[in-house]
Amino acid sequence: MQKLKEAKLIAQKLNSYREKGVKSALLTVVEVNGSAYKKEGAKFLVSEEGEVTCSISGGCLEEGLKEDALEVIRTSRPKLIKANLEDESSWGMWLGCPGEVTIYAEPVTYTGILSLWIDSVLKGLRTVWVKELFGDRELVVNEEGKEAGTHELSDLARKKLTQDRPTSELREGIFVDVVVPYPKIIVFGSGEEAHYIKLFGENLGFEVEAVSPKKKVNIPKGSFVVIANHNLRADKVSLEMALSSGARYIGVISSRKRLSKILKEWDERIYNPAGLDLGKRSADEIAFSIVAEILTLYSGSSGKHLRDVKGGLVWK
């Protein structure tokens, strides 16, 4: 699955190429066996002039894939590329990752289907793009219910659209591609921590909104809320709004003693003090630890050292 932030870059560039009449090829990771830098759904766009947008690896595959993309543009024919990341002969270098990546490269054709995908992604909507590799069946559907393409693929797309944590996958020659926006982060406050939370969060692809407790704030279900007013009265109002909402996480920047003065009853969604134990001291370090905590909760990960995670690399 590709991040919405990266999908937007692809969509913006596709719009630009359409307006300028520039031909391009879209390369998508459709299957990963073993270990790879990016997973199914990652995309790489190449123009006929050799301009590239986004990546599907840590930079080790793109140069070789550019030639494949230019061939696809010249021939107007799609192709399937398999990159064995351990085989030195595949790419002229030993990449060392114990895995194989399958990439579908196709010439870009501007249809109503692609237009709906572009528009949906640019609006930040949850979107599913179902495509038959080397075939004619294709469909795009978004969370607003808009649909374009082969109707017989609709049930598959809509089922994927409603899943809690959908992933992109290849099913018997049909690739189901998912773009899911990160939940919203709402920060009460305008101080340094709020500034850095917005900076770090947006860099990761979250939509971050800094708000004031002086006005009623709409907090969408599943949002992550951070209270950073540094004012007890403002914190109390912010906390009441957050607790009455469907927020998944309520991080409070304060001591536990200070929080006890405004909290009537404990709620499991409250994280206080907010953030992971990273030895934080300054405003940017505090903000970084909070965004790390949010990412850990959203991804369902442990927050442990990767070397201590089961299935990681073990040195003999």
List keywords for this structure.
alpha/beta, Rossmann fold, five-stranded antiparallel beta sheet, 24% strand, 2 domains
Q: TL;DR of this structure?
A:
This protein is α/β, with parallel strands linked by helices and 316 residues long. Helices cover 32% and strands 24% of the residues. It has helices at 4-20, 62-75, 88-91, 112-122, 154-161, 192-204, 232-243, 256-260, 283-299, and strands at 24-34, 43-47, 52-53, 79-84, 99-107, 127-132, 138-142, 147-149, 169-171, 174-179, 184-188, 207-211, 224-227, 249-252, 270-271.
Can you describe what's shown?
The chain has helices at 4-20, 62-75, 88-91, 112-122, 154-161, 192-204, 232-243, 256-260, 283-299, and strands spanning 24-34, 43-47, 52-53, 79-84, 99-107, 127-132, 138-142, 147-149, 169-171, 174-179, 184-188, 207-211, 224-227, 249-252, 270-271. The protein is of the alpha/beta class and 316 residues long. The chain has 2 domains: 4-179, no CATH class; 184-299, NAD(P)-binding Rossmann-like Domain (Rossmann fold), CATH 3.40.50. It has a 5-stranded antiparallel beta sheet with strand order 3-2-1-5-4. Strands 8-7-6-10-9 form a 5-stranded antiparallel beta sheet, sandwiched between helices. A 5-stranded parallel beta sheet has the order 12-11-13-14-15, with helices on both faces. Strand 6 and strand 7 (138-142) form a beta hairpin. The two termini are 33 Å apart. The mean pLDDT is 90.
